[in-house]
Amino acid sequence: MSGQSSYQPQNAFMKWMERRLPIGELIHSSFIVYPTPRNLNYWWTFGGILSFMLGVQLITGIVLAMHYTPHVDFAFKSVETIMRDVNYGWLLRYLHGNGASMFFLAVYIHMFRGMYYGSYKEPREVLWILGVILYMLMMATGFMGYVLVWGQMSFWAATVITNLFSTIPGVGEAVVAWLWGGFAVGNPTLNRFYSLHFLLPFVIAGVVVLHVWALHVVGQNNPTGIEPKSAKDTLAFTPYATVKDSFLMVCFCIALAWFVFYLPNFLGHADNYIPANPAVTPTHIVPEWYYLPFYAILRAIPDKLTGVIALLASIAILAFLPWLDKSKVRSARYRPLYRQFFWLFVATCIGLGWLGAKPPEGVYVIAARILTGYYFAYFIVILPLLGIFEKTKPLPNSISESVLGAKA
Amino acid sequence: MTTVSSTGHTRRDFLYIATAAVGAVGAAASLVPLVSQMNPDASTIAAGAPIEVDLAPIASGQVIKVFWRSQPIFIFHRSKKEIDEARAVDVASLPDPEADQKRVKDGHDQWLVLVGICTHLGCIPLAHQGDYDGFFCPCHGSQYDTSGRIRKGPAPKNLPLPPYAFVSDTKIRIG
């Protein structure tokens, strides 16, 4: 999909460089003349926002690591030192913590966008799966970062999540002791989480390169879900996509700044300002908001092993989406039934998120079971059947026709 | 010069495969220290030496918490009523059937010693709470009875018993 090699280096240095490392040509063909469908809407700007947020997390994270001490006796204290004593430490930490939330918000919008417009369908399966891998890496990174604060929520989140592995038949206990480096979550656990929390963002950056590479091989999907057929269907990446991405990125930064400056602890838990205490479990433990739907699924199931399997399956099933959705039509614009089930699915995810924060009793458990049922039914019953029974609307002949009308 | 045998396999083919195989074994062996370093280290294991606990100050009905191998151990001085409750239930009807007599030492029926870690996902249950007068886990709602047996909720097993022995009538050694 890369454009014709129209790159003509102007100055002498770039000409010299081009014959040795053609990086100018790579940037030119990938981010300047790269053809993007002319009908992309604002939902397509979140890929750029996600790259930006990864950069924000890397920079603030590396700076925070200069002041943080990964030891059970000093971790909580060093975080408070960052907040009170380090110059601009409060800003850097609030940016990092709220940045993680905004990162997840952006990835959820990005994923729902992909689902609404069928962006995972042939030939974009590998692109989608790389995205699922990125999402899993983000979850692991976010979880371990939360543990580093070493407050009560940090400690008990680490305990509960590592205990998920104790369900593995036979070797579960040994695996958990191996993860902990002890007989409970303790200093060895904190140390290795710090090491991995530092490593994983770079792994994410590496997979992002593969994700963007795969994107540039198959090209972007678009709101009609039909492929560009002529030059009239596309516009150059710069300035069109660049400006559109930049505009929403600025809006997104305003939202981030609003949290950082006005509601820095809104998305956190007061209990995490109590230092970790291995002797007392807080009466109401909940994960960060971005894990709540999965936490609700775990708690909806009364059996330990089945609950853990359901939790893992609810994430892993995303990777199989390209083969579960049998419909030949990509975009929900032309799939009237799919569109309704999709929005019901979005509501289910939000509902599960709400239930994940509620105590695991009474009507909340029943509601969580119903929504868990729909969550899985959406993937393994509704999507395959819709591909067979749904009567889709006629597709436009081309992207330009859908934008400019039949005359174009 | 190698000679080509009738089957098409040469001495060189053998050398390639043998070299690759040794290399693969070496690469696999190098994983041993990399994986093993994450297991509990010598000082952590050494810190798990047995501890002695004096039971005399524990009032009837009281649950105390001590730490052994960085795990909370509950020592529950059960009242007559609490023992009777644990023994009145039909053992076969329990999710993880085990008689109360099997969970205490002979002649020390009032002393219940448990690892205070919920068998669901590792939270510490709260004593004297829940529907069975025993323990209630605040994380996911598992309920244990006055014998530390799972009665309700997602936990699959009874609260485990640490290895312990009575040194005297009022002293136990855990570990």
Structure description:
The complex is a heterodimer of chains A (408) and B (175). Chain A is 63% helix and 1% strand. Chain A is built from 16 helices and two strands. Chain A folds into two domains: 252 residues, Up-down Bundle (Cytochrome Bc1 Complex, Chain C), CATH 1.20.810; 102 residues, no CATH class. Chain A is mostly helical and 408 residues long. Chain A has a two-stranded antiparallel ribbon. With 175 residues, chain B is α+β, with helices and mostly antiparallel strands. Chain B has two domains: 39 residues, no CATH class; 130 residues, Rieske [2Fe-2S] iron-sulphur domain (Rieske Iron-sulfur Protein), CATH 2.102.10. Chain B has a four-stranded antiparallel β-sheet, with no helix packed on it. In chain B, strands 1-10-9 form a three-stranded antiparallel β-sheet, with no helix packed on it. In chain B, strands 2-3-4 form a three-stranded antiparallel β-sheet, with no helix packed on it. In chain B, strand 7 and strand 8 form a beta hairpin. The N and C termini of chain B lie far apart (68 Å). The model of chain B has no long low-confidence stretch (mean pLDDT 91). At the A-B interface, helix 7, helix 8 and helix 12 of A face loops of B.
